[in-house]
């Protein structure tokens, strides 16, 4: 079965979908792996690395697509690329199906089996394929490094003959995968860390990392089966804002990681809270790209409001692209291996599989995912 | 006694010589403190902060200088500024007297009492005034953050469902104040750290921080009374280079902090060693500004050689300018307080003092420092 891996084309993207080590593993499964030249360059892997691992190289991108039975990618295809994908081909990538309606329709009409990495269910067995988590984990690490690099003071306490420098105060909003890694990294660097999450169940995890959990009584909150926070009511959001206001004013660093699956993230840090912080303080808004947790954050930019820096950089895992590529590549492989038929040496689109059907968006000319189908048909 | 504090004028310098808290302490000693407007801006201190602390403000820079009895500064004066300093005034700042011969002559002829912060002797009692150490300490922290921000992988080990990421390998050359802090910071972030120093005496300190000390038998080496490494012979340097070559080739990050007091730093990492590293690796050359420990490093720039990034950024403490200002300000205050006469409420230029004479370069129209005098007269 021919697995093709084109080069990523998104500007600034240095992550690559598959690393040489994974190519080796795919070949061991019996797959034929073909890559586009320079596919691994962004993360420091040369064509020679891939050739050594057993891949062959196809310099003609159109041919690469035309002859593919499975396409392994990182970012969603562009609309222009969809006609290049053969009907019946399995296309695995991020897809953003909640928002990319036109793209989903195009993939459906093209007869592509489009698998969305975002839709891997969050179960124990599928963790190994969960790219959202693997990338969020690295993003959490990056947020703290970015903050530390922009802060005019150090994170750890330092006792010196010239006096003692107090540890920086870091407040982390949202203690999901990214938030927990941000907490761990800030703690490693010696900061005094406080965190909040609307899911009371994570308080213990926060505390086990050595951070303080900010207690706010929001009444009834909870989490989805997938482990995401459920959306708050406007009253609950207001209550949270008020309760965290003082903590934010006293913080040197605020990192916001609040996401609600499939929806616009909530604005948790308002303009007056930003203005309440000391000049020189730093906010990292991990949600900037999708709407922002922080009022005034600009996607892809660092802006200054009253001397407070707000970092809205998108694609944080890209900062540690090599490790991010390793993790994503591993996620892809684990998915492929899990549905691979060892007899026929083929990727099997099996709608009886426990994980696969949930992340197939289109197949055989249909939108097979019920949630996405509902949205496309005007539901919500 | 009137203490004047002008604004720093060096491009990009955000550290400030004196913070408001120190102004308060100077006023308590009985000093009259006058600052130039905007003196603290770089590190986030407003004129109001200084007014509240007891300072007054003199917007006329010429007048500020003309009426000063003591000038407290961070960077050395420019040659053009020397005629602005009143004869008999005490001018305390970095001075770089080993290299700034013309400046030292000008200060001598102007009749200034020029005190060089670099020349504070490294004794137990003078630690509190030692700006080289306080700034090197912060610089060591900054080197690791810079490296981590440029590295395409993370520093800590991470065990995830998608696989395990190994800890980054960090090699630190020179385990003085900066090197030790770099080791501590890299260890905090979870890296696997190896270090080397020509002074065998620091092996224990390196190991107590959890790092591996690279054993290289260089024969006779040692340190000065001030704790600096003594200069190696060309043969010893070559031996060190060979012995560290393999470690460098296997390292993700190399940080060089080797300084020899008053001399050009040694080149420890040669071009072939840089080329032996994996693409994506990062080198931070802390000595780039004064000549460089790394072949190919460029002062103030990040260059790429064979995919290896070499960071030659100057003035690393400036990255954490607020804490650097706090430390420097505290160093200045500790020096002033130590020689302050409480009766007359004056800074006393006392050549019987145990610390002061060593760091006075010029006084009463003479070059009083024997080492510097010798250099100026053509010695070495």
Taking the alpha carbons of the first and last residues of chain A, their distance comes to 38 Å
What name is given to the CATH topology of the largest domain in chain A? Rossmann fold
How would you describe the shape of chain A?
globular
Summing up helix and strand content along with how strands pair, one would put the structural category of chain A as: alpha/beta
The Cα radius of gyration of chain A reads: 22 Å
- Portion in beta strands of chain A: 15-25%
The average pLDDT score of chain A comes to: 94
Quaternary structure of the protein: homodimer
* Overall number of domains of chain A: 2
Q: Given this structure, which CATH class of the largest domain in chain A is correct?
A: Alpha Beta
Can you tell me the residue ranges of chain A where pLDDT is under 50 for at least 5 consecutive residues? none
Strand runs of chain A, count: 19
Q: Provide the CATH superfamily of the largest domain in chain A.
A: NAD(P)-binding Rossmann-like Domain
Largest sheet of chain A: 8 strands, mixed
Most extensive interface between two protein chains, with residue counts: A-B, 45 and 45 residues
Enzyme class (chains A, B): translocase
Keywords (chains A, B): NAD, NADP, Nucleotide-binding, Oxidoreductase, Translocase
InterPro entries (chains A, B): Ala_DH/PNT_CS2 (IPR008143), AlaDH/PNT_N (IPR007886), AlaDH/PNT_NAD(H)-bd (IPR007698), NAD(P)-bd_dom_sf (IPR036291)
Family (chains A, B): Belongs to the AlaDH/PNT family.
């Amino acid at each position: 079965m021919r697995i093709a891996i084109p080069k990523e084309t998104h500007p600034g993207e240095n992550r690559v979908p598959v690393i040489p080590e994974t190519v080796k593993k795919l070949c061991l499964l019996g797959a034929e792996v073909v890559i586009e030249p320079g596919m691994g360059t962004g993360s420091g892997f040369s064509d020679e690395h891939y050739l050594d691992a057993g891949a062959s190289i196809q310099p003609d991108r159109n041919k690469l697509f035309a002859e593919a039975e499975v396409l392994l990618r990182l970012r969603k295809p562009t609309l222009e690329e969809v006609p290049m994908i053969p009907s019946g081909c399995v296309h695995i990538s991020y897809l953003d199906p909640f928002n990319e309606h036109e793209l989903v329709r195009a993939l459906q009409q093209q007869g592509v089996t489009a698998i969305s990495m975002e839709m891997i269910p969050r179960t124990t067995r599928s963790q190994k394929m969960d790219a959202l988590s693997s990338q969020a984990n690295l993003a959490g690490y990056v947020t703290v490094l970015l903050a530390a690099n922009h802060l005019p003071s150090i994170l750890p306490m330092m006792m010196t003959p010239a006096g003692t420098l107090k540890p920086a105060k870091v407040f982390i909003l949202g203690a999901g995968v990214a938030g927990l890694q941000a907490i761990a990294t800030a703690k490693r660097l010696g900061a005094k860390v406080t965190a909040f999450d609307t899911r009371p169940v994570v308080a213990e995890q926060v505390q086990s990392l050595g951070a303080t959990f900010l207690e706010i009584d929001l009444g009834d909150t909870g989490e989805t089966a997938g482990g995401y926070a459920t959306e708050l009511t406007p009253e609950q959001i207001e209550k949270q804002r008020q309760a965290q206001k003082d903590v934010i004013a006293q913080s040197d660093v605020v990192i916001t990681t609040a996401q609600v699956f499939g929806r616009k993230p909530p604005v948790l840090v308002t303009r007056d809270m930003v203005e309440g912080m000391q000049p020189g303080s730093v906010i990292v808004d991990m949600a900037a790209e999708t709407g922002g947790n922080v009022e005034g954050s600009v996607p892809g930019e660092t802006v200054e409001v009253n001397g407070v820096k707000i970092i809205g950089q998108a694609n944080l895992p890209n900062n540690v692209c090599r490790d991010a590529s390793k993790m994503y590549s591993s996620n892809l492989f684990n998915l492929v291996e899990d549905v691979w038929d060892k007899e026929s040496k083929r990727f099997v689109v099996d709608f009886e599989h426990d994980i696969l059907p949930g992340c197939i968006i289109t197949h055989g000319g249909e939108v097979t995912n019920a949630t996405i189908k509902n949205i496309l048909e005007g539901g919500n």
